[in-house]
Amino acid sequence: MAFTAIRTSTVEGVATITLARPDKLNAFTGVMHAELRDALSAAEADDTVRCVVLTGAGRAFSAGQDLSEERIRGADGAVDFGARLERDYNPLVERIYAFPKVTIAALNGPTAGAAANVALACDILLAARSAYMQQAFARIALVPDAGGTWSLARIVGAKRALALMLTADQISAAELQQMGLVYKVFDDAVFAGEVTAMAKRFAAGPAMTYRLIKEAARASEGHDLKTQLALEANLQRKAGASEDAAEGVAAFREKRAPRYKGR
Ligand code: LHQ
Question: Does pTM top 0.85 for this prediction?
Answer without folding.
Answer: yes
